[in-house]
Amino acid sequence: MSDFDQLAGMQPLRIWDGIAARTVHGELVSFAVIELDPGSTVPEHRHENEQLGVLASGTMRFRIGEETRELGPGATWCIPANVPHEVEAGPQGAVAVEVFAPRRDDWGGLERLPASQPQWP
Amino acid sequence: MSDFDQLAGMQPLRIWDGIAARTVHGELVSFAVIELDPGSTVPEHRHENEQLGVLASGTMRFRIGEETRELGPGATWCIPANVPHEVEAGPQGAVAVEVFAPRRDDWGGLERLPASQPQWP
Predict the structure, then answer these.
(1) What is the pTM of this model?
(2) A83: closest CA among A118, A61, A109, A51?
(3) A54 touches chain B (CB under 8 A)
(4) What separation, in Å, do the N-terminal and C-terminal C-alpha atoms of chain A show?
(5) pLDDT average per 10 residues of sequence, chain B (121 residues)
(6) How many CB pairs under 8 A join A and B?
(7) Do A76 and B6 touch (CB under 8 A)?
(8) Cβ–Cβ gap A99/B102 under 8 Å
(9) Is residue B16 part of a domain?
(10) Do B67 and A97 touch (CB under 8 A)?
(11) ipTM surpasses 0.90
(12) Which of A99, A119, B2, B97 matches a 20 to 30 Å C-alpha distance to B23?
């Protein structure tokens, strides 16, 4: 199996309603490019995986613990393990590049969405 | 300390000659946006950290183990621990978003470059 791949060749996973991820899994981490439809929401949740990322395009309102920020391209975040967080994508949607550690073995059962052209890059 | 930051506010680290990283460190991973000057090279090296990434802009020739690819935007890679790899940036340079696990505590001694405007996004 190659160590290389292409976002355009990956079948997206449905993470939440209106939110799709193209993922690369290592041994220790899951790396993902996540597309959020305009106005889509990630309800408050928490997980043992720490979650770091950068906003590639669009805007979103992001809450981590007690802190809420309006984010634009170039914003970064670092969510420690088990800290509750929630997101609302802006009116143009958003694309985030994120990593989860340990890797998201719990994503194996997610719905696979039809292949589509990535919105980014 | 906030869980949020901005690429534009980070002082880049000099990873290799002509190659600069703006980084966010978690407990388990280091997340980085890496800018490669046109024609810059990462000499063959290896490390215990697995390394996953996506090419955000530009082009580069990437070798992992015995496999070499010419990459454009949207290409992804997953370098297992301790596998030798090398990179040559294309004539317009490149920007990669990458993660390293375990985190790069060995980067603490790297030279900090002067603050500058990020090339991406």
Answers:
(1) 0.97
(2) A51
(3) yes
(4) 24
(5) 93 97 98 98 98 98 98 98 98 98 96 95 96
(6) 142
(7) yes
(8) no
(9) no
(10) no
(11) yes
(12) A119
